[in-house]
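Preliminary data (for renewal application), flavin mononucleotide complex.
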Amino acid sequence: MAHIQKPAVTSTPVHDLIRDRWSPRAFASKPVSREAIASILEAGRWAASTNNSQPWRWVVASSDQPEAHAAALDCFAPGNQRWAKAAPVYVFALARKTFEANGNPNGHAWHDTGAAGAQMVLQAGALGLVVHTAGGIDRDKIRQTYSVPDGYDICCAFAIGYQGDADQLIEELAERERAPRVRKPLDELVVGAGFGSVADVLK
Ligand SMILES: Cc1cc2nc3c(=O)[nH]c(=O)nc-3n(C[C@H](O)[C@H](O)[C@H](O)COP(=O)(O)O)c2cc1C
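Predicted structure:
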């Protein structure tokens, strides 16, 4: 069966990688090479960050180490484990809460870690992989399992792999897999002269 594709229906053209990215739950059993994983992490490494503070840290588990893979899967919320179990690679994104230079709070740590995550997701797409981000994770378990210090927040998980067939999912998840992708219209997101007015750029 062909893999489900859900290209974004855009109001104006965007790059194919952005258009075609979505968050599947069905993963193929095909493993992901170390080179591909390294390339995804490298893409994150080169994200922009406040004062070049690079607050992101990543915990990575791959199916080539089954015990580590199982331990990481256990850190997903039970509902997410139902689909995440098939993904060969997991990455947990952590954000350092303070600047290394002076110890002051870094109010941009989550933003920058998220920006790095977006680059990783697009790099994965360029390599023919798919990514499903999950905020439904057991942060206490992650902190304990990977000895994450207090100075780091645990932001989210990425389940990464090659896309699989929706038939392998239980019906509830298969339905979500087939559901159309929706977004708010752009004019609801872009503020004009003030909230409630249409931005010139969209007229
Ligand atoms: C930070 C973050 C947390 C998310 N958490 C979950 C999650 O716990 N479980 C899940 O199934 N999907 C999760 N998602 C996926 C979103 O539901 C999905 O990106 C959104 O519905 C848009 O769909 P699309 O990515 O296919 O365009 C998360 C996405 C992000 C960015």
